[in-house]
């Protein structure tokens, strides 16, 4: 064998080997080789290919490992528009769809039904059998060229071999991340976050759901990261000029033969009843399908008939999507546990047999309060229906009583705090039960610390939930103010995994929080009904914690937007001795408990009382803030948006035309800086 032949041989055998390991890894989830050894094989192949490009295989595995970095994805015009599908949600809608077709082309036709995969649509262009472009849907007319990223997806053929390959054809499909791959990535992130917490770093965000994960990954700049993310693709359409296939079913078969990944879940349906049976069959089955699906796509099979039916402006008349209702699942209720929040409110939580729902595994659902537990008449072991409201916290929507186990135990709301054993109380007019042991009920204390250090309050990002647990369980802190008396030696000797560096980092974060302005400190105290905005209003109005603590009910409700409920809550808070002691401790620690000079405006005149102003643009004599302060000083009110309630718009240079137009339309008086000055000098 000559040297050249030997190289050709080595390239071929390396390519085969790597393909084999890739199949194992991507399709069978196993690896027979270490990452390092695998990388060495790739490296060797890259080297040989660089020296002898003439021997590189058109579908060389080196094309799949990525490496190309794309800063801005070029825009590409689609050859055929990428339309969307009309949606239906009920059997009646489906009947209408069917009847429209019958009316137009008669009743001799067949459907192909497919799952509607929930990922990102992709258009793949093949020229002479080679993948030349992968384009996202974009606005349907043009999309982004994501070819380097798409090449890393194992289930997208780089080269198509076989018979009848047209010079040009386009394949459309859905790029997705399987539920399993998604979960693994999130588990990895959660694991990494544990280490980050100890190192005092901000936690990384978990991926929201498989669909977002797929679309986010496909648009990543570094294709070698995409290669590691295990995306996959199901193909569902073959297009081209004058292709020889009778219908969609034939085209799918051809795609399979050419090596495209066509899901075998599709079915030919000769009647509408068969379509409905397919829909019913997958309603439950799709929950166990490895890919997220949100419905069924129903397509008229014959291309000739498709052409006859044509398109509306947005979608084909020969296809429709049947969407399943808000994702729901059923599972077993194992136990009801109770959570105690920082305010002492006790929330019942349903612990469920884990079930996959709309992108995540659900193990728990909130039951809100005792009334809800009663309403559902829950028994342990019940089959319950769960739904995702707003896609975040799942709720139990009902119980399948026909499946209730014999002698199942009824769930009765507890009478004592699950954390500290204190008898629970209910406040008049409220559904919630409370644990009154404010001082030493652990979750309440911990919750108050968590609230105090959160970003919107003191922003101590050097302490995560696990550290709070430790600080609390080791007795180092009992309330937020105790954070300011921690020291390094104490932390290192008491906390697990804490070393010099991590202790210093924690203390730095605490120290830095002393510069946080008063309104956020006030919010951090966690006074009931005093959220971030209310805290800001109170801080501005009273200027210091001492003045706020001394304020009467009347003085409190005189502040704009402060009502009875907030006023009562503030009075109750400062009526408690222990709260005053806590505030005193914070004061001693050097936390900001009053507004900095310049931040509060003393009202010295009522010349503008009862008038509200919007300030916009740039002014000659005042800065915008000075102008606002002047309005306040003269008893006026500053608001941010123009509405019919606004009296004056003080218009400076370069203000937006939209605001001006709106003010004119609503009859708001528009005044100049000069005119404003006159108003306050009179
Ligand atoms: S066919 C003319 N088949 O759903 C439209 N689409 O709203 C032809 N999708 O953007 C699309 N699974 O991303 C078709 N089996 C399937 C599908 C499917 C998911 C997505 C696709 C498209 C959207 C339509």
What do these coordinates show?
This protein has 682 residues and is of the alpha+beta class. It contains 24 helices and 22 strands. Helix 1 packs antiparallel against helix 2 and helix 16 crosses helix 17. The chain is globular and about 90 Å long. It starts with a helix and ends with a helix. The mean pLDDT is 89. Bound molecules: 2-(butylsulfanyl)adenosine. 2-(butylsulfanyl)adenosine is lined by residues 83-85, 114, 116-117, 121, 137, 174, 236-237, 297, 316, 319, 321.
Task: Give a nutshell description of this structure.
This protein has 682 residues and is an alpha+beta fold. The longest helix has 25 residues, at 3-27.
Give the ligands present.
2-(butylsulfanyl)adenosine
Mean pLDDT: 89
Count the helices. How many? Answer: 24
Q: Could you list the spans in which at least 5 consecutive residues all have pLDDT below 50?
A: none
Label the overall shape. globular
Number of strands: 22
Range of strand content = 15-25%
Helix content: 25-40%
Structural class: alpha+beta
Radius of gyration: 33 Å
> End-to-end span in angstroms?
104 Å
Q: What profile does the largest beta sheet have?
A: 7 strands, antiparallel
